[in-house]
Amino acid sequence: MFINNNSFPSCLALEYQHDALHNHFRSVAHLPWAMLLSSGHATHPHSRYDILVAEPLATLCTTGEHTCITQGEVQTTHQDDPLALLAQTQAALLPNLPAHPTLPFLGGALGLFGYDLGRRFEQLPEHAISDISVPDMAVGIYDWALIADHQQQTLTLLSHGDIYARWHWLLAAQESYADRAAEEMPFTLTSEWQANMSAAEYQQKFDQVQAYLHAGDCYQVNLAQRFSADYQGSEWQAFERLNASNQAPFSAFLRLPQGSILSVSPERFLAVEQQQVTTRPIKGTRPRHSDPISDRAEAAALTMSEKDRAENLMIVDLMRNDIGRVAVPGSVSVPELFIVESFPAVHHLVSTVQASLPDTCSNTDLLRACFPGGSITGAPKIRSMQIIDELEPQRRNAYCGSIGYLSCCGRMDTSITIRTLIAAQGRLHCWAGGGLVADSQWESEYQETRDKVAKILPILSATPCEPSKSNSIAMASEAQDEPQTAHASAPQDGTCTLHGDNSGDESRHDAHTEPQ
């Protein structure tokens, strides 16, 4: 069915299939600026839409102080605020539209806002090494999209241009992929994972954070470590394996000229609908267990943990403050506090902050006021970011930034890019971190970082025809025969131990409310 009127782009209703966008994206995944936002087929209240885009009208790439805008054959370089440039470029190419009753994205900006984009908004030191070529911001302006609504079970192609030409382009891409699929090199790792800090080095950095905490510099600091390995083959195949194992509601695959982003994030950063903003920070983690009794016990322990509640509340207050900078005075509220949500590898403690935005506040204004998200920095934010830059050896790049869209109809939805990998120049990078407070213990915090990648690193270490049967990670320079344990401490030699089989049920445990 073809739908068109003067207010919206042309829309073509197609036959719904739950995996339709993944099937279509497989045929265009090799194209620079092809992007997929995936709900991960998750049994989660916010797993609703998949959005596929490619062939943007224009692209914006920010590295350091410079933003390169490319439109067709024309490239211009600017030193202005990259988010202001984004808003200006979108406004020049697409009309401002009223919201659609069911479609969240009617064309607009979609892409990556890396953690280091925050250097444009806050003064930070330059200690950490920048060793990945992916830009700080990489966003396309798209005039078409293929959208699956898994709640309404609809599949819609929309376009501001010739919609039938776009549909035939998608069909031709599928035919072309069928011809070359047999020649596609399978994804495989060609080296073991290597952490950028040993257990002893992590402990040393942990102690430095504790010194800052006790000196009153900050209340919480998010310290992360990076795992890297060599690889060959299809990055899209790697994402498909991760997506199947993680079922994360804010997953994404971005093909950029400089590399690919593979994200299986469980965390929403900022969502805006009809000038109402929602953020859902995660702070607090427990591992999953295959034994249902042990699994429920972990969720209950997380619910009752005073330490995790205190960490979560610090970030809730930080996000209330960030959003309050641009929100209607008195409109900031916390409708949910300390909710336990369960994912394949871990239980998380989640809260919700909401507010109303004045008509004068644009989505880029909101993003600038809140970026990067407080759940992955610490509090106070700026001092925590300074400490992170001092202690983490390399810059975070895409990790702990955001992926999402800013639609020309005023809607926005973005993730926090945790559980996110970068594939660039034959190297694959994955991060994991956690919030450190005054009563944190280094062994449990170190182990928590390993728990968070329990459904990532082993999945990619397995060969395509022989899926991972355990959550052990082979780490270069680390012992390879460490047994899996339910509550292992991190040994001094850095041996990687992940909590056992995390295939527990996917039920959602709410501490104070019924499921949404």
From TrEMBL:
GO terms for molecular function: 4-amino-4-deoxychorismate synthase activity. Residues 22-157 form the Anthranilate synthase component I N-terminal domain. It holds the Pfam family Anth_synt_I_N. InterPro entries: ADC_synth_comp_1, ADC_synthase, Anth_synth_I-like, Anth_synth_I_N, Chorismate_C. Pathway: Cofactor biosynthesis; tetrahydrofolate biosynthesis; 4-aminobenzoate from chorismate: step 1/2. Residues 482-495 have a biased composition (Polar residues). Its cofactor is Mg(2+). Keywords: Folate biosynthesis, Magnesium, Transferase. Residues 467-516 are annotated as: Disordered. PANTHER family: AMINOBENZOATE/ANTHRANILATE SYNTHASE, AMINODEOXYCHORISMATE SYNTHASE COMPONENT 1. This is Aminodeoxychorismate synthase component 1. It comes from Plesiomonas shigelloides (Aeromonas shigelloides). The gene is pabB.
